[in-house]
Design brief:
454 residues; alpha/beta; Alpha-Beta Plaits; Rossmann fold; 3-methyladenine DNA Glycosylase II, Chain A, domain 3; 3 domains; four-stranded parallel β-sheet; three-stranded parallel β-sheet
Length: 454
C-alpha cells in the first residue's frame, strides 16, 4: 500500500470559488471540484506548485518554514538557491552583497548552493560516463522526480541517482562547521532559501534517502522583503562568494545541461513541455541523447511559484551577476569529486520507487471488474474533457465514478440528456389519457359505455 507523504501545497477552502481552472492545469490530475470547492488528491499531487501559480482566487498556498526555526539551533547556515540571486538587480548589486545580506538577517554563515551545483555537475557527468541507459534524466528538480514516479514509472531507471545540489550543500556546510567549531550535526541548522514548494517537500520527505542534511526550507518570497530592508546599508565582504558562473547559472533553464558538459544534451522547462518529452521517451525516442535537464517551472528555478521577480527579468539578472565571475569549475572541485565519488558521497542511498495511482482494488478479480466498468462508463461519457463535472477529463471522471467518488450525473451532458429524455417521456404521458380515467369521467356524467364509445 502506498503511504501518503508530506505535502507543501495546501488548499485554502474559504478562498476557493470552484472555478475549475486548476483542474485543467494540474499535470497529474490531482485536483477535483466537488460541491463547489476544490480538493487535492494526495496520492496524485507532486507539489509542483502549478495550481498556486494559476489560481485567480489565491486558494492554494505553500506550507514552508520561517525564521522562527533558526532559534532551535546553536549555529545556522543559509543555503541560497542560485535563483535567489536573480531576484535582485541594480548597478551596485553583487552576489557577495546578497550573501552579506543573509548574514544581516540572522544566519551565522552562508554556503552557496551554486557552489554545490558545481560538485553535482561533475558527479552527474561521472555517472553518465558509467551508464549505458539513454537518455538519462536529471533528478535535481523534485517535482519532475515525483511526476515520473506518478505518471511515468517505467522511466525511473532513466533518472540520475545523484543528490541534488541543496543536499550536497547542506552536508558540506555542516561538515565544515563541525570541523571548525566542534559542534554536533544536530546543533547546526541548514536552511534552504527555496524558489518552489516541491523543494520544501523534498526536505521534509526526501526521495532516494531517508535523512536530509537540510533542516528547513524558507520561501524566497519570505526572505525577499527582509533583504530589501538591509541591502542598502551593506558593504561587500571578501571571501563570501565562491561559486563560478557555471554553478550560479543552474538557477535558470539550460544551466545544468551546460554545466554537466556531455556531448549530446537537452534542456526542457515548463512541466507541460516536460510531459511531452517524457511521453516521447516512453515510446523509445531521444535515445541518441545522453542527458536531459528537466525543469518543472518555465524558465527553470527562476520561474518558481515562490519567487518574486518575473522569470525573464530574473534571467537577465543572472547574466548581470555572473558576467565577472570565473567561467569554469576550478580543478580542486574536480579532484574533490573524484575522491568522494567512490565513497558514494554523491549517490542516492535507496532506489526511487514508483507511486501507483491507478490501482482500482487490491483484489485482482475485483480490479478487473472495475476496469471493465470503467471502460463501459467511459463509453457513455461525451469525451469532451470540458472539466465542468469537476474532474479534469472524461477518463478521470470515469475513474472517479468507479471509485465511488462521483456519479454519471455529475457530467452536465449526461445530465442534460437525462433531463431531455425525462421531459419527452412526461410529454408523451401527457398526450395519453388512460382509459380508466376516461371511463370514470363518463360515469360521473351518467353516460353508458355505448354512449361513451360513440
Amino acid at each position: 500500500m502506498v503511504q501518503p507523504y508530506f505535502h507543501s501545497v495546501t488548499l485554502e477552502t474559504e478562498n476557493c470559488k470552484g472555478c475549475t481552472i486548476c483542474i485543467k492545469r494540474c499535470p497529474t490530475e490531482a485536483i477535483r471540484v466537488r460541491s463547489g470547492k476544490a480538493r487535492i488528491l494526495e496520492l496524485r499531487c507532486i507539489d509542483c506548485g502549478e495550481c498556486i501559480r494559476i489560481c485567480p482566487n489565491h486558494a492554494k498556498r505553500a506550507i514552508a518554514d520561517d525564521f522562527s526555526l533558526l532559534s532551535k539551533f546553536k549555529y545556522t547556515v543559509a543555503l541560497p538557491a542560485p535563483s535567489f540571486y536573480a531576484q535582485f538587480s541594480g548597478p551596485d548589486m553583487s552576489i557577495s552583497k546578497i550573501l552579506q545580506g543573509l548574514l544581516q538577517l540572522g544566519f551565522n554563515a552562508v554556503f552557496e548552493v551554486a557552489e554545490a551545483a558545481e560538485y553535482v555537475s561533475l558527479a552527474i557527468r561521472r555517472y553518465i560516463e558509467s551508464s549505458s541507459i539513454r537518455p538519462l534524466i536529471s533528478s535535481a528538480c523534485p517535482a519532475i522526480v515525483r511526476l515520473i514516479q506518478v505518471r511515468f514509472p517505467d522511466l525511473i531507471e532513466h533518472l540520475v541517482p545523484v543528490h541534488a545540489p541543496v543536499d550536497i550543500a547542506a552536508r558540506l556546510a555542516k561538515e565544515m562547521v563541525m570541523r571548525k567549531l566542534g559542534l554536533r550535526r544536530e546543533e547546526i541548522g541548514a536552511f534552504f532559501i527555496t524558489p518552489c514548494p516541491a523543494k520544501v517537500t523534498s526536505v521534509k520527505q526526501p526521495i532516494g534517502f531517508e535523512d536530509s542534511w537540510v533542516d528547513g526550507a524558507i520561501p524566497i518570497t519570505s526572505v525577499y522583503a527582509r533583504m530589501l530592508n538591509v541591502l542598502p546599508y551593506i558593504n561587500e565582504t571578501e571571501g563570501l562568494q565562491q561559486a563560478s558562473s557555471v554553478g550560479v547559472r543552474w538557477g535558470r533553464a539550460t544551466g545544468e545541461e551546460n554545466a554537466v558538459g556531455v556531448p549530446r544534451h537537452l534542456a526542457v522547462d515548463g512541466i507541460q513541455s516536460v510531459i511531452e518529452v517524457l511521453e516521447e521517451i516512453e515510446v523509445g525516442k531521444f535515445n541518441d541523447i545522453d542527458f536531459i535537464e528537466c525543469q518543472a517551472c518555465r524558465g527553470g528555478c527562476v520561474g518558481g511559484p515562490l519567487t518574486v521577480q518575473n522569470a525573464f527579468q530574473a534571467w537577465v539578472n543572472i547574466e548581470e551577476l555572473t558576467k565577472n565571475l570565473p567561467a569554469e569549475i576550478v580543478p580542486e572541485i574536480e579532484q574533490e569529486v573524484e575522491k568522494r565519488w567512490e565513497d558514494g558521497f554523491y549517490s542516492l542511498e535507496a532506489k526511487i520507487e514508483p507511486r501507483s495511482i491507478l490501482k482500482l482494488d487490491d483484489d485482482l478479480s475485483r480490479a478487473i471488474e472495475k476496469m471493465e466498468l470503467l471502460e463501459k462508463t467511459l463509453e457513455s461519457l461525451p469525451g469532451l474533457d470540458c472539466g465542468s463535472c469537476g474532474s479534469p477529463s472524461c477518463q478521470a471522471l470515469a475513474e472517479d465514478i468507479v471509485r465511488g467518488l462521483a456519479s454519471e450525473g455529475d457530467c452536465v451532458f449526461v445530465l442534460r440528456d437525462g433531463v431531455q429524455s425525462l421531459a419527452e417521456e412526461l410529454l408523451e404521458l401527457a398526450r395519453q389519457v388512460p382509459s380508466s380515467i376516461s371511463n370514470q369521467g363518463a360515469a360521473d356524467k351518467g353516460l353508458s359505455e355505448e354512449e361513451t364509445e360513440k
